[in-house]
């Protein structure tokens, strides 16, 4: 399964050239038939489109990943009662915004006589619908592309931190790892072998991830992606099993968290729910797109149930000890150490899929400016620079929970909560929007904006505070020595 929210299956940039396969093309190739430019099922359906079940699987895959593993800590920040209720409300709002995006895309594509629109194009044509915004409409698409780039590169940063934290923990606990999972519930072992700093692990992963993103055709990664999805699903089953069977009674956890921690909850939750980028590509590729609403409600209902259940069960199981990812709390026995490694493998492969979106937006325009003999070299160089950039950001902020919350607050808020309601007002401007709909859209956008401001501020404050504490501890240790 992919990361929360985790990937725009057909990035905005991939539509610049239909010869570049999207993740959807790579992982769910269409049956033999006409080439993509000749297909007409994007809006009216056809035998070459994806089935109801295939679309449902891709929707689930596009929404479940590292964000899910961080939700137990999010529930801790909100409280045992407030957290699940907030996740339910956020899930309802997120699904509503996804439906708004589909509705606006249909309306605008009919007006401009296009079979389908991307997220950015929908915002662009929505702005063209308002006379005083028409001359600036290109900035609508550019803004959406910018937030897609920030979001996807942010996911890549999260993956660097996730990989380093989990592999570091497995390595350090290797000597204490046993076959009995009953000996260690708190993940505290008597024998730990000091290892490198987690940032050095990130640097160790760097060359391998660079080589991975050199694979420009995602079809070649399809077999590995299938394996990754299987092992991540199996890992989630084991995580659920351990959490359910190790809840301690009585459960004495705060029903509501501290007010200052709630923005961190918001950032993590919206990071998990930011799967809006997959909506239009999935609907456009359906064999019977008229059934997409049912797919959306069923798929996101399952996603919301998983988010609420694992977030609540994980917090009830590990309590105040819960880490930035629930995998970090699993016991040091071979079964659950394997879970960490298998999930890490899945995230490693998913990195290339997440990276595909910003690469397809940023790299083609740069490559088009050089001569043909230099195209491949420039392409690979830019891929290398982008991966190094994400690694550098991860090294600067090696705190998994805070990176997730920061990425969610900064970019996911706009894509999932702010843009869709504004788009509805723009798209139906000439038809007239009722006052109640306008108020509803303004409220949703304000929720997203407040979450963006407070979540970003609190995440940055916490990052600065933790770094200061680490420097202080390192200095004290140096003085003692």
Automatic annotation (TrEMBL):
Highest taxon above the source species: Eukaryota
Keywords for this protein: Membrane, Transmembrane, Transmembrane helix
Residue intervals of the Amino acid transporter transmembrane domain: 49-460
Bilayer-spanning residue ranges: 78-102, 144-162, 198-215, 222-242, 262-282, 294-316, 341-359, 380-397, 403-427, 439-460
GO molecular function per UniProt: amino acid:proton symporter activity; glycine transmembrane transporter activity; L-alanine transmembrane transporter activity; L-proline transmembrane transporter activity
Keyword Transmembrane appears in the UniProt entry: yes
Recorded GO CC terms: vacuolar membrane
Keyword Repeat belongs to the record: no
InterPro entries, per the entry: AA_transpt_TM
Topology class, membrane: Multi-pass membrane protein
Region (Disordered), start-end ranges: 1-44
Localization terms from the record: Membrane
UniProt name for this protein: Amino acid transporter transmembrane domain-containing protein
Species of provenance: Anabas testudineus (Climbing perch)
Gene name for this UniProt entry: SLC36A1
């Amino acid at each position: 399964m992919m990361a929360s929210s985790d990937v725009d299956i057909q990035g905005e940039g991939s539509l610049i050239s239909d010869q570049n396969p999207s993740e959807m093309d790579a992982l769910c190739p269409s049956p033999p038939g006409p080439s993509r430019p000749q297909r007409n099922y994007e809006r009216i359906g056809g035998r070459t489109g994806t089935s109801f079940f295939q679309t449902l699987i891709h929707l689930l895959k596009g929404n479940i990943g590292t964000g899910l593993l961080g939700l137990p800590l999010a529930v801790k920040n909100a409280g045992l009662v407030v957290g699940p209720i907030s996740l339910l409300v956020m899930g309802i709002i997120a699904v509503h915004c996804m439906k708004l995006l589909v509705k606006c895309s249909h309306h605008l594509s009919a007006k401009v006589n296009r079979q389908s629109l991307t997220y950015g194009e929908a915002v662009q044509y929505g702005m063209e619908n308002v006379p005083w915004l028409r001359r600036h409409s290109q900035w609508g698409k550019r803004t959406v592309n910018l937030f897609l780039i920030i979001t996807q590169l942010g996911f890549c940063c999260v993956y660097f931190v996730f990989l380093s934290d989990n592999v570091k923990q497995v390595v350090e606990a290797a000597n204490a790892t046993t076959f009995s999972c009953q000996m260690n519930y708190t993940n505290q072992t008597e024998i730990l072998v000091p290892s490198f700093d987690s940032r050095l692990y990130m640097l160790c992963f760097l060359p391998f991830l660079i080589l991975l993103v050199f694979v420009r055709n995602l079809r070649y990664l399809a077999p590995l992606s299938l394996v990754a999805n299987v092992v991540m699903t199996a890992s989630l089953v084991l995580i659920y099993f351990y959490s359910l069977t190790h809840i301690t009674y009585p459960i004495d956890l705060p029903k509501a968290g501290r007010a200052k921690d709630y923005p961190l909850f918001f950032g993590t939750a919206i990071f998990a729910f930011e799967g809006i980028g997959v909506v239009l590509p999935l609907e456009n590729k359906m064999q019977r797109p008229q059934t997409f609403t049912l797919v959306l409600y069923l798929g996101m209902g399952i996603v919301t149930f998983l988010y609420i259940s694992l977030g609540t069960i994980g917090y009830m199981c590990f309590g105040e000890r819960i880490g930035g990812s629930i995998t970090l709390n699993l016991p040091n026995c071979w079964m659950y150490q394997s879970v960490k490694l298998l999930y890490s493998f899945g995230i490693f492969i998913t990195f290339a899929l997440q990276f595909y979106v910003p690469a397809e937006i940023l790299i083609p325009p740069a490559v088009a400016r050089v001569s043909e003999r230099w195209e491949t070299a420039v392409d690979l160089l830019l891929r290398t620079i982008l991966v190094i950039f994400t690694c550098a950001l991860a090294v600067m902020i090696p705190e998994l929970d805070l990176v997730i919350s920061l990425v969610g607050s900064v970019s996911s808020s706009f894509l999932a909560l702010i843009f869709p309601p504004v788009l509805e007002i723009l798209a139906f401007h000439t038809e007239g929007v009722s006052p109640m709909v306008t108020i509803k859209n303004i409220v949703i956008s304000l929720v997203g904006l407040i979450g963006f401001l407070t979540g970003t501020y609190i995440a940055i404050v916490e990052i600065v505070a933790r770094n200061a504490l680490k420097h202080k501890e390192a200095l004290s240790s140096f003085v003692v020595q």
